[in-house]
Amino acid sequence: MKHKLLHYTMLLLAVLASLQKGQAQLVFDKTFHSALNPSWATNFKTSLLKDGNLWCVGSNGTYSFYNGSVWTKSKIPNATSNNRGIALDHQSTLWIGSFGDGLFKKEGNNWTQFTEANSGLPSDDIRALVYDTIHQELWVATYGGLVRIKNNVWDIFTEANSQLVSNLISDIEQSADGAIWVVNDSRLVKIHNGLWTVYNSSQIFGGSDDELEDVFIDHNQKVWTTSSYSAKGAASFDGVNWTVLPGFRAKHFKV
Q: How many other CB atoms sit within 10 Å of the CB of residue 19?
């Protein structure tokens, strides 16, 4: 027990040191809480946004940010669902994706809610968000397809009009070169300068195509993904080759 406690203590110190240096530390989440472990946090991802704060989405419409010394918790008015993604655009507009209540937009003190009923959103179940600061567009991962929002224009990508294998998008990240990386069922899709590149799970892990779970890009710009129920492991991509680490299943990466 003492050895385990020492291990987790050293791991937490390493994560905190990495955050202070402004670099992303790769951690396999086996305990289902954030690296800093606020008592009210959920197992959802944290994000280091452009304002320099560490943001965390939570349950029951909550979200929080850490400015380096203090955690501040807030709640979206009248929101009840679990939040699954958070992004800050170039105009400091805050976007939050929920799993059931759709997409929320905060400008100043004013909130706007986008749903299937009042917008182009293909599903009210959102899994992740990322804001592309290069092209100034928001990408939304939903259970009904992939959404790109720019200048109030909504582009919807589905299996019917793109290289997606299904309309289920479970995660999304952006690399330093501007590429958008999307987890789509059994595929990891790279979207860069209008070109879509598909990596099937069988290409990454071998064997048959199985569901992928997560995507993470570390400070060395290696792209990581994990297998889901097949338990084939975690894999990193250096731009040429995939390297598999066995023994992991459906784990979420943390920063």
A: 19
Instruction: Sketch the domain layout of the chain as residue ranges.
Output: 27-254
pLDDT digits (tens, 9 = 90+) for 39-82: 333 344 556 666 667 788 888 898 888 888 888 889 999 899 98
Name the phi and psi angles at 210, rounded to 5: -130, 165
Decide if pLDDT at 88 tops 90.
Answer: no
At 33, which amino acid appears?
H
Sign of the CA dihedral with 87 first, then 26, 168, and 198 last:
positive
Average pLDDT, the chain: 80
As a whole number, mean pLDDT of residues 114-123 equals 96
Which pTM was predicted? 0.80
Q: How far apart are CA 255 and CA 246, in angstroms?
A: 21
Mean per-residue pLDDT, 241-254: 73
Question: Hey, how many other C-beta atoms are within 10 angstroms of the C-beta on 96?
Answer: 26
CA-derived radius of gyration, the chain: 18
- For the domain covering 27-254, report its CATH number: 2.130.10.10
Residue 208 to residue 73: CA distance in whole angstroms = 43
Is residue 121 within 8 A of residue 157, CB to CB? The reply is: no
| Residues 6+ away with beta carbon under 8 Å from 241 | none
CA 252 to each of CA 14, 100, 157, 244, 249: distance values in angstroms, whole numbers, following the listed order: 18, 21, 25, 16, 9
- Contact of 86 with 55, CB cutoff 8 Å: yes
- H helices of the chain, in order, are 2-20, 201-205
